[in-house]
Bifunctional diguanylate cyclase/phosphodiesterase
Amino acid sequence: VSKQAGRNTYSRFSAEWNESNEHSLNVVNGLRHALERGEFLLYYQPQVNMSTGVIVGAEALIRWMHPVRGMVAPGEFIPLSEETGLIVPMGDWVLRTALSHWQRWRSLGMQDLVLSVNLSPKQVLAGGFVEKLAEVLAETGFPPDKLCLEVTEGIAIHDNGLALEVCRGVRELGVHLAIDDFGTGYSSLSALHRFPFTTMKLDRSFISSIGQQDQSETVLKAMLGLARGLHMDVVCEGVESREQWNRLQALGCGVVQGYLVSRPLPVAEFERFVLGSGTAAG
Ligand code: C2E
Ligand code: MG
Ligand code: MG
Ligand code: MG
């Protein structure tokens, strides 16, 4: 039922609940109450500057502590949350909670990190997103250039002009904007060109192919060149081995995120990890 993955134990619904309507209904009912019952939590995964070895950022990743099933990964409930619209209040909660964690990190004496938060296309397109963001930033006094919002290139597919407008609004507030899982979607190049992205997160499929086939490194190099040409920061996702680290460093990648440095950690563990390591992995 549940599988051990390091210190994270995930319960997979699909293992004993078949992919039935009943299953979806149960999950939707559970999700509706999860927010008010405080069953969501945020994990954080560090991001490290390759040339200094210093932790420069963290990505907030939601988890659902289900009262019966245990820890549930987002792949199991984000799609249903999007279908039902629950993603909007959930996304508000994620943003507010992550900002308040960051404020505590500062009070603990941590160096300011760039905090990355994932956005679903539904949230972006729900209306009033930029106003809501501006309000939260003003209320909390959060420095906008320490926040990075991640959207996938799918955002451009739905686009009727609104997505672009929201992305521009986010940039006008001084918040960074990342294209997540870059290279896996359809509209990669046109989205890059049209949207005001500051950061490219290279999908881990490109990193996992390092050392596997000759062609992969050619593609990787081209992507890094593209980011450089467009003056975008690069974060390489899913770095798991020393070999991958070394190749990426040689290719001039800026920042990495992956199990080699650390898995996503519960917030208290994340704090200990950062405070205990002036530098990491380098
Ligand atoms: P993502 O934004 O691309 O996040 C990175 C995912 O890769 C995370 O999975 C992380 O645990 C995993 N990962 C990091 N390093 C490695 C590695 O070295 N190897 C491997 N195999 N995996 C690695 P996670 O936490 O299960 O999240 C999955 C996706 O769920 C995220 O992909 C994101 O699209 C979505 N998600 C997570 N939190 C939120 C949220 O608060 N809001 C929204 N809208 N989506 C979220
Ligand atoms: Mg992400
Ligand atoms: Mg990603
Ligand atoms: Mg992803």
Observations:
- Residues 180-181, 201, 237 surround magnesium ion (ligand 3) (CB under 6 Å).
